[in-house]
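User: I'm putting together notes for a lab meeting next week and I want to include a structural view of one of the chains we've been expressing. I don't have a solved structure, so I'd like a prediction I can at least talk through. The sequence is below, exactly as it appears in our construct file.
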Amino acid sequence: MSVTVEQNGAVGRRLTITIPGETIATGIEQQLESVGKTAKIKGFRPGKAPASIVRREYGAAVRDDVLDELKRTHYAEALTSESLDPVALPEFEEGRFGEDGSFTFAASLEIFPQVDPQGIDALAVKRPRVEIGDDDVDVVLERLQKQKAEWESTDRAAREGDRVSVSFEGRVEGEPFEGNQGENVPVELGSDEMIPGFEEGLVGIGKDETRQLELEFPADYRTSELAGKKAAFEVTASAVEERKLPALDEEFAASFGCEEGAAQLRARVRRNMETELEARIRDDLHERIGNRLIDANPIEVPKALVDQEIERRQRQMLRRLGLGEDTAKVPNLPREPYEEASERHVRLGLLMSALVRREAFQPDPAKVEKHIESLCRQLDDPVAGARELRADNQAMRNVEALVLEDMVYDWLLEQAAVTDEPKEFLAYMEPRQDGATEQTRSRDDA
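Assistant: Thanks for the context. Below is the predicted structure for the 446-residue chain, given as structure tokens.
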């Protein structure tokens, strides 16, 4: 066997492999002999047909089978001899026979890049420094109150935070459009659920009052036919309601599983806020230090790995939509929304794996146990759940991988120049406010 290797960038390789004619001929003869022992050919008893007849009947098929097998084995041997580590199956090109009976074919593949992360000692990152004040706890408690609030009719004019029931009719360029009418639609002023200007135009409206609103649909409105167009709405209010918050008393606290009263609820809310804040800061630090590591190491990544990550994210999206693992739908999903994040994920994964090997990281058993406890804490039987997880080799490998990742991030932060960046709690957590409130509630209910 002879092998030549052409390099295409940092990760692309093209192997040209020649299988000797003698190897092919020997393989064909051996396979024909094996086939001849059981071949059923008309006019002969099974296995008794002459070799020439067996060759005539099965020669072409045997040659194809032998070539396929020899291509696989010689490709594998070429990878070993050339010390290549492919990331996926290769693309085989059509081969050709030589005058001496040899067969030459080519295989294009991508390999894992040789990665040696640099610039670790020059990494710099800002760490959010956030304190939770009593006012922050008050805001979250008020959100919990709003979850259980009741609406009461009022005769006064509507103001921010009220709910107004309206009937409306809209027109664009004097013509109606799909969904242009509504009857007794509840609109909470300040919720930003309607197009810009609609809720603001209802501030000060009274029951049975009619207003004319001149508005404009956003340029990125979900209905392209209306995007960016001016619209005129006639709106009539049939009711104005104000929100009545429940008192922060023992009954309210008990509805969240706090039988000891409002003080217990307040303490639990603060504790949950601290947990959410700690997770958010950790995620931010990981993302920031990961970005600095990527910037310092502009490595080329194999397209096959990016493709795999895109498909993983597409399947994940299908599961979120309740479509399960419907593989037939994956090829029809758009790739663009996932490409940038997938490439970053692959690049960072290669860098982190290289650091694990170079620095000889091993998962800390104590941290593995802590992670298992964290995963099983919400189960009905945490002890049984942890025991079952430890017995699952694949699950344990996943846990150890997560622990290793956290250990590498912690090590990177130890090497980096870290400066504090003061932040206000609510402003910092705003992207996750609703999620934090929901998690607080679900934990309390549990």
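A couple of points you could mention at the meeting. The chain has three domains: 2-110, 120-130+251-445, 150-244. Confidence is low (pLDDT under 50) at residues 432-446.

User: Perfect, that's what I needed.
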